[in-house]
Amino acid sequence: MNRPFPSFVPIAGWLCFLTLAASPVIAQETKKPAAFPTKPETFEIDGRPAFLYAAPAPMEGRPWLWYAPTLKGVSLAGRKVYFEALMRAGISLAGYDLGEVRGAPGSTERFTKFYDEMVKRGWSAKPILLGQSRGGMMMLTWAVRHPDRVRAFVGIYPVLNLASWPLQRSEAATLADFGMTRTELEGRLKEFNPIEHLDGLLKNRVPMFVVHGDSDVVVPYNDNTKLLKERYEAGGGSIAVKIIPGEGHQVSPSFFECPELVTFVLGLP
Hints:
Structural class: alpha/beta
Distance between the termini: 75 Å
Strand order of the largest sheet: 1-2-4-3-5-6-7-8
CATH class: Alpha Beta
CATH topology: Rossmann fold
Strand content: 15-25%
Shape: globular
Number of domains: 1
Helix content: 40-55%
Largest sheet: 8 strands, mixed
Radius of gyration: 25 Å
Number of strands: 8
């Protein structure tokens, strides 16, 4: 006598076994978020060191933030709030150490070699530039000479005016970078001062954000960020400035845990 479906129970049991056996595999395939890099990739361009902290899961377009100054291994990676926000959002962090440069044409074009290398490696052709203190002069000078290659400009009490900190407090390094005497540089100040050449950034609608203390005596707000804000707004540009009352040129949460700075960077189109 033929019995229908004689192997129903064994087959059902076997399928159940397969399902249970597969469960751990499925669980193992659920990926945990990749850890943030603890050490950068380092490389050299023309004998000078560069670094890259690649975001574990880069955002579409492979965006990156170019930080300056990169001196003696200094980078934004040590600022936990900013670093983790960038990595979590898929924005990589990179920089290039050219030493104590002050925005001369020669040193600025050496920065372009670093930019070219980053683009060659597949990173965005429009980095976000962040200049802290003297790094502001490095980044703004590069930006005004290459305004079509800049996604945004960010400053943390940045040097933006050659007539300010560079000539008042760092004359020797500034003159060495330009290869000029003080008289020669002052005679051509308007030609080289990035604060005088914002038209390209305005034309390309490059947005800006700066945080600066109103009690900064090293890089005075009025001679730098205030001047940038007035001129950029007069040209129709988009610039947001957060003034920190009573604080100067210092390391504090006001400057290195600034929520508005994070919101600005992560909200860029």
